[in-house]
Amino acid sequence: MADDSFLATLNEFIQITKEIIKKLNEELDWINDHHTRCNAAKTVGTTSTVVGATVLGGALVLAPFTGGASIVAATGYGALACTAGAAINITTDLTDMVHPIMIFHEHIERIHRENYLEFSRNLSVNMDMNKYGVQRL
Prior knowledge:
The protein is mainly alpha-helical. It has a domain at about 1-45 and about 85-125. The chain has two helices and no strands. It is rod-shaped, with a radius of gyration of 29 Å. It starts with a helix and ends in an 11-residue tail after the last helix.
């Protein structure tokens, strides 16, 4: 009879572990998708910065031919594009670094609370651990 209780508890542990692995794989997929979206945003930010720098460089090269008018016309756009691109990259880096960590820890705690805590209660109820020579930690 005690062996049946032990096997039932062991089977429950295996099932719970499989569920946890499935949930963690779902979280990993979400984090990978989030990272892909962040990479797309960073591409936009980097492109904006490069375009702004190119416009500034072109305005400087054309300045002798336009009497300096190109500098006045392009400086505003170039500086704005460079600043916007840098802001996009910084914001995306922070989001990509902080958000998945916060979400992951929140879900890990929830998974632990839902599965292992209940399992450990069932384990102590279903088994007499001292009978098998196992001491509680």
